[in-house]
Amino acid sequence: MLILGIETSCDETSAAIVEETHSPAVPWAIRSNVVASQAAIHQEWGGVVPELASRQHIRDICGVVARAFADAHATWDDVDAVAVTQGPGLVGSLLVGVAFAKAAAAAAGLPLVAVHHLAGHIESLVLQNGEIPLPAVVLVVSGGHTSLYLVPAPGQYELLSRTRDDAAGEAYDKVAKLLGLGYPGGPIVDRLARSGDDRAVKLPTTRLTHKDRNAPELKGDLDFSFSGLKTAVARYVRERHETIRSAKASAERGSTATASAEHSFTEQDIADICASFQRVVVTALIDRLFDAARRYQAKSIGIAGGVSANSRLRAELAEHGRLREIPTFVPSLALSTDNAAMIAAAGLRKLRAGVTAQLDFNADAALTL
Ligand code: KG4
Ligand code: ZN
């Protein structure tokens, strides 16, 4: 059985062909996975511009799907179903994939499967590693999400906690922006942090103990919060900048020092800020993840989504897993960011369970899982 997967929830247009293998350990094989990234388009705006994203998806979708078929040496006659991301995401972007998938499924007479984007991220772990020991706790951490799930059985996802404000990736992107480092910020901060002192800058850690009034069904004490951290970095940068500027001004009396924050810092200053920020983020993610694993007696732990590419997060996950004797899983770097192979995999899971969508289903920007 072959399935075509389509993903257009944010700024990547992706199509993939994934095969069901019937091997219990490794249920799916990627035949192709084409990703057209719009990063270069959004870079100059410092973040994703929704209107530009949906227009670019329209330009790219047909070519990306054609390429996915070519790479897989497959034709429409070979595929058995179409899976597409229904949400959450940017509604204009989602609509392009959903409209394409509906048209293609109707024209080719194929069943349609509507997939939750985060179910796709969770299944990227299985796509990469084969079936993982269950129950598992899985953290999906990206530019839009920081959500912790319990996976009690294949294809079942129970939300345990999520961020109350910014997603971890969003915090990386905002800190990179205020340091003038470019977009997306995560990989840049990750790289610069390697040469920094992670204790150089004192930054607050947030540990929530109270329930979230907006989500009374969640316990609340496993929730995340990153906006205070981002504000603390911003304040530190501003204060350091003031100190450097007044020192410069008194040294060069008469001349006016007007350098911007990023220009008045040394490379070591920037590396120290990146390392200190990264230590706090990674510690928060790892602490909550292993707390949840203990609380729910998980047999494995996974991290998926764009931020799972982070080198410190990967290293600490492996290290803590080894110390606490629990297997840990991450996707490959290619499967950690948005891609259609993970959507196809989650689609196969749903198709196997007999869950398909009707042609009148709609994209849902705030779809819950
Ligand atoms: O999953 P993804 O491709 O898209 C979303 O659904 O958001 O994740 C993108 C996010 C961005 O915020 C980016 O800065 C972050 O993942 N990211 C990283 C790293 N690589 C990507 N964050 C920290 N360290 C990295 N190495
Ligand atoms: Zn994503």
How are the SSEs ordered, and which strands pair?
Blueprint: E1 2-7, E2 12-20, E3 28-37, H1 39-43, H2 50-72, E4 81-87, H3 91-108, E5 112-116, H4 117-129, E6 136-141, E7 146-151, E8 158-162, H5 168-178, H6 185-193, H7 227-251, H8 261-264, H9 267-295, E9 300-304, H10 311-323, E10 328-329, H11 333-336, H12 340-352
Parallel strand pairs: 1-4, 4-5, 6-9, 9-10
Antiparallel strand pairs: 1-2, 2-3, 6-7, 7-8
Helix pairs in contact: 2-3, 4-12, 5-6, 5-7, 5-9, 6-9, 9-10
The structure holds 5'-O-[(R)-(carboxyoxy)(hydroxy)phosphoryl]adenosine (KG4) and zinc ion.
The site of zinc ion has 5 residues, from α4.
Q: How far is the N terminus from the C terminus? A: 26 Å
What is the helix tally? Answer: 12
Structural class: alpha/beta
Mean pLDDT: 93
Number of strands: 10
- Sheet-strand content, in percent, reads 15-25%
Task: Give the ligands present.
Answer: 5'-O-[(R)-(carboxyoxy)(hydroxy)phosphoryl]adenosine, zinc ion
Strand order of the largest sheet: 3-2-1-4-5
What is the helix/strand order? EEEHHEHEHEEEHHHHHEHEHH
| Low-pLDDT ranges | none
| Overall 3D shape | globular
What does the largest sheet look like? 5 strands, mixed
Overall helicity: 40-55%
Radius of gyration: 22 Å
Could you characterize what this model shows?
- This protein is α/β, with parallel strands linked by helices and 369 residues long.
- It is built from 12 helices and 10 strands.
- It has helices at residues 39-43, 50-72, 91-108, 117-129, 168-178, 185-193, 227-251, 261-264, 267-295, 311-323, 333-336, 340-352, and strands spanning 2-7, 12-20, 28-37, 81-87, 112-116, 136-141, 146-151, 158-162, 300-304, 328-329.
- The strands form 2 sheets. It has a 5-stranded mixed β-sheet with strand order 3-2-1-4-5, sandwiched between helices. The chain has a 5-stranded mixed β-sheet with strand order 8-7-6-9-10, with helices on both faces.
- A hairpin with a 4-residue loop joins β6 and β7.
- It starts with a strand and ends in a 17-residue tail after the last helix.
- The model has no long low-confidence stretch (mean pLDDT 93).
- 5'-O-[(R)-(carboxyoxy)(hydroxy)phosphoryl]adenosine is lined by residues 10, 142-144, 169, 172-173, 184-187, 190, 305-307, 309-310, 337-338.
